[in-house]
Design a protein that fits this description.
Blueprint (H helix, E strand, L loop, with lengths): L1 E2 L1 E6 L8 E5 L25 E2 H10 L6 E5 L9 H10 L3 E6 L4 H9 L5 E5 L7 H5 L6 H12 L4 E8 L6 H10 L6 E5 L16 H11 L6 E4 L2
Parallel strand pairs: 3-5, 5-6, 6-7, 7-8, 8-9, 9-10
Antiparallel strand pairs: 1-4, 2-3
Helix pairs in contact: 3-5, 6-7
């Protein structure tokens, strides 16, 4: 595999773990609020890490890092992701995966082979507004629903999360998402932040009091709904 970014230390990306974060390139979504646009629409092939370089780095960090976070882009786009993760697991690391849930068969393979310890799945919006929010009509809500159900029945830690954008989400949307996720372990709302490197334009954060109202609406279906980053 090839990677397009390496954060050598993070205390935030993997809950309660000291980890590094690996960034894969490419995504099948074009979310206008995406803060990793350079990993999606304008991939820089001049600054990459080979699989061998990453494994050498991890070998040197044994005993210092607990885990490895794999994010993107969309990591499950890559056919060799399972093979790479197995090498990481064989080194004794815990693995956290970020995904948009559109590759349920690859997610199932990782879960069945115990190759991931924590999965964070992004839920972009209510079903009616999913395509608009993901920036593409080429979406299978059935695949997303399969991934949701896989995680809800999995024997690992997981979370669902939504980046809330003033121009894209209403309180009713968040309520519908939570109803879709009913019974899930954890659901996080994270307010939009402008990284200056977006795919779209004119995106803004939701006022904190509105975010609080959204959280309260979601808690009717996912009791453990929290606001992250406030």
């Amino acid at each position: 595999m090839k990677f397009y970014g390496l954060q050598k230390l993070t205390l935030l990306d993997y809950p309660e773990k000291t980890a590094c974060t690996l960034f894969t390139g490419g995504c099948n979504f074009r979310c206008p609020f995406c803060h990793n646009a350079l990993l999606v629409t304008d991939i820089d092939n001049s600054c990459t890490y080979s699989e061998e370089e990453i494994l050498e780095f991890l070998s040197k960090r044994k005993g210092l890092l607990d885990g490895v976070c794999i994010t993107g882009g969309e990591p499950l786009m890559h056919r060799d992701i399972a093979e790479f993760i197995k090498k990481v697991k064989d080194m004794g690391y815990r693995v956290k995966l970020d995904t948009n849930g559109t590759f349920p068969e690859r997610l199932k393979e990782l879960l069945e082979n115990k190759l991931v310890d924590y999965v964070a799945m992004d839920i972009k919006n209510s079903k009616e507004k999913y395509a608009e929010t993901a920036g593409t009509e080429n979406i299978s809500l059935s695949d997303i629903e399969k991934s949701i159900n896989l995680l809800k029945s999995a024997d690992i830690d997981y979370e669902f999360r939504t980046t809330v954008v003033r121009e894209l989400h209403t309180e009713e949307d968040i309520r519908k998402i939570a109803e879709w996720l009913c019974g899930a372990k954890k659901y996080f709302l994270q307010n939009f932040e402008d990284s200056g490197n977006l795919i779209g334009e004119n995106m803004s954060a939701v006022p904190k009091e509105i975010l609080e109202q959204m959280k309260n609406s979601a808690k009717a279906f996912v009791e453990n709904t929290q606001i992250r980053g406030v």
